[in-house]
Amino acid sequence: MSRFRAHAFDWIACLFFASIPVVIFWQTATSLAEQDAASGGPLDNAAFYPRLIAALISVAVTIHGIRLLFGRVQDQSTFKAETGTRLGVFLTILFLVYLLVLPYAGFHIATPILLIMMTRALGLGLLSALAGSVVMWLGTSFVFEGLLNVVLPVGMFNITIFS
Amino acid sequence: MFDLLREGLPLFFNFQALLLTALGIVGGLVIGVLPGLGPLMGIVLLLPLAFHLPPIAAMGMLIAIYVGGSAGGSVSSILLRIPGTPLAAATLFDGYPMAQQGRAQDAVGLALTSSALGGLIAGLMLVFFSPLLAQFALRFAPPEYFAMAVLGVLTIALVSEGSALKGLLAGGLGLFLSMIGTDEFTNAYRFTFGDFRLSSGPHLVAVVVGLFALSEIFSQLEAGNYLAKPTVQRLRISFRALRLVMTHKFNLLRSSMIGTFFGAVPGAGGDVSAFISYAAAKRFARADEKYGEGAEGGVVATEAANNGCCGGALIPTLSLGIPGDASTAVLMGALILFGFFPGPDLFRDSPDVAGGIFIAYIMANIMLLVLGIILAPIFGSVLKLRKAWLLPAVLLLSTLGTYSLQNSIFDLWVMLTFGVVGYVLRRAGYPLAPLIIGMILGGIMEANLRRSLLISRDGLGIFFERPICATILAIDLFLLLSIIYSTVRSSRKGAGENEKEDPQIT
Amino acid sequence: MRRFLGMATAMVLLASNAQAEFPERNIENIYPWGPGATMAASQVIADAMGQELGVNISVVSTPGAAGTKAFQTALEKPADGYTIFDGYVAPLVLQPMFGNADWTYEDFKPLWSATSNSFAIVVRKDDDRFPDFPALVKYMTENPGDLRYSPGVTDALPHMVAAKVMQTSDVVAQVVPYPEIDNAIKDLRGSVLDFMVINPGVYASNKDDVRVLAVLSEFEGASGTYGGAPRVQDFGIELGMKGLAPMGWNWWLVRKETPDDVVATLQDAMGKALARDDIHQKLLDMGYVPLGYSPDQYKEIIAPVASDLKSGIDAIAWEKEKLQGTK
Questions:
Q1: Tens digits of residue pLDDT in A92-114
Q2: Which residue of B has its CA nearest to A93?
Q3: Do B187 and C155 touch (CB under 8 A)?
Q4: Do A46 and A102 fall within a single domain?
Q5: Stronger pLDDT, C2 or C289, i.e. the higher one
Q6: What is residue B392's predicted lDDT score, i.e. its pLDDT?
Q7: Helix (H) or strand (E) holding B190
Q8: pLDDT digits over C72-128, tens only?
Q9: I need a labelling partner for C246 at 20 to 30 A (CA). Which of A84, B162, B504, C285 fits?
Q10: Residue C25 contacts A, CB cutoff 8 Å
Q11: Which ipTM did the prediction report?
């Protein structure tokens, strides 16, 4: 068990890589076969090359898995929380929520809120966090929306500032 | 050729064209530095502005964005460990370690001067050897592309030292990512799971930003110390970088040639040339140069190559009317918009415009050299920012840069997903660069394999009948054997050391 | 925080105020292919139309799934006139016929038609095996499946027209897909391909190195874009498709639910932009012929095209079968 713990991330990565050939063989046998693109010559067969690559990945994953199993991998990769891991996870979730609300709230509502929460969480004082966030938000909006004419997510309120 | 340049002089040397070229370099650098947007999107976004300018001034600006954008990505690679563009992914290897050793300004200066000099060498090739290189490019057909792509994939083993197997796995993931989307031959949807947003696959840039930028932000968050004021070497304008780059003359020349070559052959791009040139530099390095631990040569190799590629890509664009890469395709579109059709016609009917473009390209690189030296300390001052400011800013810029690629929130989800993937792979000790190589080369490799087989009447014969292709394949084979040999040898040795060390660890 | 909320409310008010006057912000044109010369043609129109409206219209390249990704992306946006479909034939008519999309051309409100381009069959300039189009047909009759050609991508319009012409002459060649047509023309010039189907833009930048054997259009004007080259029918060979059917074109559209006054504003602006002489000339210079069909003509023009394209789809299936027979 300790061997699994010592290489925790390595094992996760190994499982992740092992899932690639599985997905390739599964999809070529189902979805591509249904689309009539899993057999025939180079013009008609969209599955040949993926299967070839999947076979090569399988070999590499197997070798790596065996090396892991027999403790032949030197670098350890344990689950070890560092000082900022909790905050990191919190901010990742915050960003996830940001992406979820972005299409509805729009860039000009969601972004300043994200920035203020983030700068505050990183320990900046209320006033400087507020001022800095507004500067960052308006500054980048000016460049992207005003100068580069990108249509930033307008949200349900149809808000734009520089266009 | 000199006639051409003389014809172009009056068109280019006016205040407006010079100013716009300088602005283009600065704008391009900034666009390159920001994670997400690169030279291609920079040109696309500013093209509408160019409509309203005189042709040479507009082309000067767009070419300057192309040149500056190709160089700018290195700055964020070096300072933040975040490649601003996929072109600069290989600059990470040595640029970031250099900055860690307190040589941030040297590294940025070196990157920008090698970019400019690489671009200038390519410019000389453009002026003097265009017809020759263009003719050579015509002899590059699907079988040759396939062989080249295999060569590129094999360099993965060279750039992921110590863990060739992990490198190959990461490369395999990249190859898989390149298969997602609509198959070019059957128009079948492959690995899209019925989601139309995946019908052109995950966007390369969204993947790069996620893998490098988001995972780096997370690692920085984990490390704590958000309010500590970083101590940074004093930054000032200095010509030291020029002197440094001159100690790598041969590397510079070789890398620029590699870049020019990859640019001149349509289809392969600056990112591939940067990796291959890095691998070559590492192979030919002196024993005391520690590649991967802050070797100056590594920065010179990648940056000279990816900017050399710009000049290279202009060769088929201007002399054949066939764009060398996506960015030059847009430049060509702009030129057509102004009523000039690239190709032999251009040199015959409007030599002043052709010459003006040559001059614009060369001037853009000279300006990059000058502005790079002036701006290096300003870029470097990013390091003075406290993390509490730096991290939200990088996140915001990554988000905006990625969104602006296709005005797509889905791309942001791709970015976040690959942020998580990047973090796990990084913790597990996987090199990330091979993933990018795989993703770029995967499509080229598959399409040209299938195309070759369609063109061939006798199956695999086509790969051996064509001399250039057979030569590259022979190199591939040699490289493969040498990789297998050195892997087996080092793993035997590694196992031996492992056994010796084991008692001390437990 | 309160100050910020105040600002936000002010902006919301500002935004809802603005709805009275369309357009109040930048408009997106969702373009279905990768950046390049064809996109520049759309940018020219977008730029001029934006000037009429007083806002910027940005052309957003959203390639994928033979053009349908762009349509699907645009369909997900609200029907408020701020999203325009760059309605190329492939995603608008062709892909739904292949069963790859569930809309028809009647699901959109039309603005003006934009540009059209006819296709042509070209060979290398110095390829003396094929002095003219009948010689190419004769060669293919004698050596079925021996020649290799590229229409760019498969199953798209140029492929369809080429397959149709070959079907009517009962000949066949090996199709080699190239998503970037520039690479195909490189391989044609490098003697890897024998002939190609190209568009005027590609022709214009490769005129010195290719020779047009036949223009794939029955319009007389089509010859003009190819330096006066003969049309297929000038050799007494059936093209098998009429009118706009064998040609590439795009018609700008908006979602069906878009309010009429908004549509009218957009139609008016696009009409004015296309009527400008400088825009007209610029497009022509680039090899794109402005079609000039008004929104009212949308249905009468497109309905016959749709039925004609059916035969093209059959031609591709025929080509596939025939090719298998030659192996």
A1: 999 999 999 999 999 999 999 99
A2: B416
A3: yes
A4: no
A5: C289
A6: 95
A7: strand B189-190
A8: 999 999 999 999 999 999 899 988 888 888 899 999 999 999 998 889 999 999 999
A9: C285
A10: yes
A11: 0.95
Q: Give C213-262 pLDDT, tens digit per residue.
A: 999 988 877 888 898 899 998 998 888 888 888 888 999 999 999 999 99
State mean pLDDT over C317-324: 90
Chain A CB contacts of C55 under 8 Å are 163
Give the mutation candidate from B350, B455, B463, B468 for the C interface (greatest C CB count, under 10 A): B455
Q: Which domain holds residue B275?
A: 2-489
Copy the structure tokens of residue B8. 């172009």
Contacts of B267 in chain C (CB under 8 A): 180, 183
Give the rounded percent of residues in chain C with a pLDDT score beyond 70. 94
When CB atoms are compared, the residue of C15, C27, C327 closest to A159 is C15
How many domains is chain A built from? 2
Burial (CB count within 10 angstroms: exposed 0-12, middle 13-18, buried 19+), residue C168 = middle
**What does the angle CA B203 – CA B207 – CA B210 come to, to the nearest 5 degrees?**
140
Residues C40 and C108 in one domain: yes
Q: Which residues of C62-81 are buried (b: 16+ CB within 10 A; e: fewer)?
A: bbbbbbbbbbbbbbebebbb
pLDDT by residue (tens digit) across A112-128?
Answer: 999 999 999 999 999 99
Q: How many residues comprise chain A?
A: 163
C58 vs A contacts (CB less than 8 Å): 149-151
pTM of the model: 0.89
- Orientation of helix B55-80 relative to helix B351-380, angle to 10°: 30
Q: What CATH number is attached to the domain comprising C92?
A: 3.40.190.150
What is the extent of the structural domain holding A128? Answer: 85-147
Chain B contact for A63, CB < 8 A?
yes
| Residue with token string 């009647």 | C106
Q: Could you tell me if residue C262 is inside a domain?
A: yes
Closest to B337 (Cβ–Cβ): which among C44, C46, C69? C44
Please identify, among A34, A69, A104, the residue that sits at the C-terminal boundary of a domain.
A69
